[in-house]
Design brief:
By secondary structure, the protein is an alpha/beta fold. The protein has one domain (7-275): Purple Acid Phosphatase, chain A, domain 2 (4-Layer Sandwich), CATH 3.60.21. The chain is 33% helix and 19% strand. The strands form two sheets. It has a six-stranded mixed sheet with strand order 1-5-6-7-9-8, with helices on one face. A five-stranded mixed sheet has the order 4-3-2-10-11. Helix 1 packs parallel to helix 2, helix 3 (78-85) crosses helix 5 (117-124) and helix 7 runs antiparallel to helix 8. InterPro entries: Calcineurin-like_PHP_lpxH, Metallo-depent_PP-like, Pesterase_MJ0912. It holds the Pfam family Metallophos_2.
Length: 276
């Protein structure tokens, strides 16, 4: 989807780093993230977001302002890319007529209408990838795929895909020891032949596990730990209702299950009987 890949060199970041993705217009989750960081003495220079600052929830304008106020590094997700371009959809590549495709029209239109020119200009200036050093290791940061920002890569994706993406990134950045990514919405670490592929998960939507808490990650001393993030779910649901968005994603915040499994590979789907 990108014609030219813009890379940000972040230098050496040896202290604890907070890694997160997908704020998804969920202002309450961003506020909880800020509190989580403050409690651990982590400032904006120690935070990296893998993109999609806006999406399913009801406060895109406020969410973007809160993310920008944190001063964290943000790489462009497909939502930022599309909104900056003035595109008509989120660019996720959902199958036409699928549940995700139909639901995305409402939240994308809401975000496009709520964000001002300044916010969209900020989105258009975000880097596509970033690189930094931590504890002697070099990390690359992307959203989905290197050449296709909306590419879904899962914990069970074929090894050849990880190798392909790794090579695509190194063609731009030079060698990296590990890759931090987002987009899929599910946190995982995949040990590949070339290093760790780390998906920090997202803070704006639960990881389809039946719980309301979302996810973020801490990189400290070269080790990655996932953490659950509690936030004001009722407040986020109220924002979505006020915005007139379909109830499907508001119900997802409450139930902990996504409204559709269209994008998920079979091995990561949850049988309806298991949802209680």
């Amino acid at each position: 989807m990108q014609a030219k890949i813009n890379c940000a060199e972040l230098g050496v970041l040896d202290g604890p780093l907070l890694l997160f993705g997908g704020p998804y217009s969920n202002l309450q989750a961003v506020e909880a993230l800020a509190a989580f960081a403050a409690a651990r003495g982590i400032n904006g220079g120690q935070m990296i977001c893998t993109g999609d600052s806006v999406a399913y929830c009801g406060a895109p304008r406020e969410c973007v302002a809160a993310i920008r106020a944190l001063g964290c590094v943000v790489v462009a997700g497909n939502c930022e890319v599309q909104l900056a371009r003035g595109a008509e959809d989120c660019g996720c590549g959902f199958a036409p007529g699928s549940s995700c495709d139909m639901l995305s029209g409402a939240w994308y239109a809401h975000a496009a209408g709520q964000l001002d020119a300044g916010a969209k200009d900020w989105m258009g200036r975000l880097p596509d990838v970033a690189v930094f050093r931590h504890q002697g290791q070099r990390y690359g940061v992307i959203h989905g795929g290197v050449r296709d920002v909306a590419r879904y890569i899962w914990s069970e994706t074929a090894a050849a895909v990880f190798d392909e993406e790794w090579q695509a990134l190194e063609d731009i950045t030079g060698p990296v020891d590990h890759i931090i990514a987002g987009h899929s919405g599910l946190p995982f670490i995949r040990e590949t032949a070339r290093g760790r592929w780390i998906n920090a998960g997202v803070i704006g939507m639960p990881p389809h596990d039946g719980g309301q808490q979302t996810r973020l990650a801490l990189l400290d001393g070269g080790e990655v730990g996932f953490h659950r993030l509690s936030y004001d779910v009722a407040g986020a649901v109220a924002d979505m209702a006020k915005a007139g968005l379909p109830r499907a994603y508001a119900e997802a915040l409450q139930s902990g299950y996504w409204p559709s499994e269209d994008v998920l590979p079979p091995g990561l789907r949850v049988p309806s009987l298991a949802r209680g």
